[in-house]
Amino acid sequence: MKTQLQQVVAELILPFLCFSAADKELWDEDPAEFVRKENDYMGEVYDPRTAAETFLTSLIHKKSKDCLDNTMQYLVQGLTTYAMQSDPAQKNYPFKDGALLAIGSIGPVLKKKTKYRNSLEDMLNNHVMMEFQNPVGFLRARACWVYGQFSDIKFRFPNNLLAALEAVVKCLADPELPVRVQAALALRKFLDAEQLMEQMRPAVPQLLDALFSLMNDIENESLVSTLETVVEAFPEQVAPLAVPCVTQLAVAFSSYADREDESENEDAAMAAGNCLETLSTLLLAVHQMPGMFTRLETETPLLQLLAQNLQPDRVEYLEETLEVVKCLTFHSNPISDALWQLFPLLVNAWQVFGYDYLEEFTPCIVYYITRSSERFCATVEPKTMVLDMCKKVFENTDASQGHCCSAAQVMEAVFVGCPGRADELVQPFVEMAWSRLPQGGDGSGEQKCGQALRVMLLSVMLNACTYNPPLAIEAMERLESGRTSQMLNTLLQTLAELARVHDKKVAILGLSSLIGIAHMPGLPPMLGEAMKQILETALLLLQQCQVQKQQLAAAAAEEEAEEGEEESEDEESDEEEEIDEDDDDDNDGNEDEDDEEDAENAEDARYLAMLNAMEKKVTGANDSS
Q: Which pLDDT value is given to residue 462?
C-alpha cells in the first residue's frame, strides 16, 4: 500500500504540480493574465493543479502514517538531486517548483509533526533561500510563496527569518510582474510574525510605494488586502503618509471601477471594493491626529469619490462607501462644512436606490444629527429629509422590523441630539412610533412587532417625554382625545421587557420628566392619577439598574480571572502539548450586547433618594386629598 501511494504521488499528483510549458508561455506573453489565473478562485474548480494539490493534502490527512514519510522522502530526495546538479542547464526547474508547491501545500501537517517541524528551518535554508537569486522567475516567485507558508514557524536563528524577509521585500522590485505580486502576497504572511515588526517599521514607506506601484500595474484584490494589512499593522508609520495614501487609493478605486465592465478585468470590482475597505482602515489609523481629517477632506479627492459612489451607477460599492462615511462622521465632532455636503446626497441615495440598505445608512445619518446638530437644526430642509425618510418606512405596511428599528434610531437621535430645536417633529414621531406598538392586552400586533422593535418604539416615546414632556403629552392627546391613559398603560406594561441597562436609563429619564410636570395646569387628569405608578416603576427600574451593574461588574471580574487562569495553564502545558502533538495529528481527518455605564453608583444612590422623597410627597398629597 505504501509503495502504491508513493507511485500515486510521484506519477499522478506531482506532474500536475510542476510548472508546465503552458505556464511558461503565459508567464512570458501575458504576465498579468498569469497572475489573474493564479488568483482566480472561481477558476480553481476546473484547474488540474488545484485538484492535484487538494488530492495531495487530503491524502496526507487521511493516510498520514502510510503516505507522509514516503512523500517527504521522495520530495527531499528530488530536491537534493536538484541541489547537487552543478550545471544550470541540467537542473529540473519545473520539478523543483512542483516539489516546493507540494511541501508548502502540506505545510500545516508538517508544522504539527515534531519530526518535521524541527527541520523546516533547515529545509528552507538549504532548498528555498537560494532560489531568490535564481534567474528563473517562477522559482523566485515560488520561493516567496514557500516562505509565506512557513513564516509562522519558530526559527531557531531569527536572522534566518530576517534574511527571508529582506529577500521577499527585495522581490517587490523584481523585473517580472508575477514575482512582484507573489512577494506582496507573501509579505502579508510575514506581518503575522511579531518578531519582525520592529525590523519592518522603517521599511513601511518603501512597502507602500511598492504596493501602490503594483496596484497601478494590475487589479488584484489580494494586493489591496496586503496594503490594508500594512496600514492596520503600522498605523503610526502610515499616518504621516495619509494624504498621499488616500489620494492613491481614491485614484486606484476610480481606475478599477471604471474598468470593471471589461471582460479582461474580472478582478477589478473586488479590488475596487477592497480599496474602500482600506480607506476605512486608514481613517481609523489617523483619526486621533489633530487636523488630519480636515486635510484629507480638502487635499485629497476623498469626498468627491464618496459623492460619486452615492449615485445609482455605483450601487455595488454602497456598503463599503457607507463604512467610509460612517468612519468620517463618527470621528468628526463637529462635522466640517465639506463633509456636511454629503448629507443630502446620503439621504437621496437611500430614497432613490438604497432602501434595502437602511440599516447601513442609519449610523451615518445618526452621526450627522448628533455631531452636527446646530447645522441640522439651522434650516428646515434636513429635518424634512429625516421626517420623509421615517415616514417612508412606517407608512410601508411591508417594512421589515429591522427597517422600523433603524428609523426609530433616527428618531431617537433627533430627540437626544437636538434638545429644544426640533419641536415640529415630536407629533409625527410619536404618532409613527405609537402606530406600530401593540396596543391592548390581546397581543394584537405581536407578529409585526417583535421585542426588539417594541423596545425601540418605547424608547422613541420615552425620549419624546424627555425632550419635551408637555409637548409629548400633547402629541399623544392629539392622536385621539383620552388616548393618553391607554398610551401610558401600554408604555408601563412594556417596560417589563427592558433588559439592557441603557434602555432602563432611557425609561427612568422619560418617567422622571413626566414626574416633573405632574402638577402643571392643563395636563390630562389621568397623569396625576398615574403618578404613583410612574414613581414606583421608575424606582424599580433604578434598583434593577444598580443590581444589574453589580452583576455585570462581577461577571467581568470573573471572566478576567478565568482568562488569567487559562493563560497560566496554557503556558504550563506548552511542552506537554508538543510531546502529544504527533498522536493528535494522526486523527486530523477524523453575548449579549455590551452595556455602557454613564453614571457612578454614588450618583445613582442620590437619584434614588430623590425619587423616594418625591414618592412620599405624592403619596402624602393623595392621602390628604
A: 92
N-term to C-term CA, the chain: 99
Angle at 116 between CA 110 and CA 122, to 5 degrees: 110
pLDDT band at 63 (very low <50, low <70, confident <90, very high): confident
Q: For residues 112 and 584, give the distance between their C-alpha atoms in angstroms, rounded to a whole number.
A: 9
Q: Which residue type does 267 have?
A: D
**Per-residue pLDDT tens digits for 313-359:** 999 999 999 999 999 999 987 899 999 999 999 999 999 999 999 99
Set of cell numbers at residue 128? 528555498
Q: How far apart are CA 407 and CA 387, in angstroms?
A: 10
- Residue 444 phi/psi, 5-degree rounding, is -65, 140
Give the H or E element holding residue 555: helix 531-585
Residues belonging to the chain: 625
Between 146 and 476, whose confidence is greater?
146
Query: How much of the chain is in helix, strand and coil states, percent to nearest 5?
Result: 80, 0, 20
Is residue 56 within 8 A of residue 108, CB to CB? The reply is: no
Q: Which amino acid is at 295?
A: R
Confirm if 141 and 184 have CB atoms less than 8 A apart: no
How far apart CA 113 and CA 124 sit, in angstroms, is 16
Q: Give the cell for residue 77.
A: 530526495
Angstrom distance (rounded) from CA 548 to CA 187: 47
Closest CA to 321 of 366, 287, 354: 354
- To the nearest 10°, report the CA torsion of 500, 506, 510, 513: 130
> Got the DSSP string for 84-127?
H---GGG--HHHHHHHHHHHHHTHHHHHH-HHHHTTHHHHHHHH
CA gap 147, 124 in Å, rounded: 8
Which three three-digit cell numbers place residue 9?
504521488
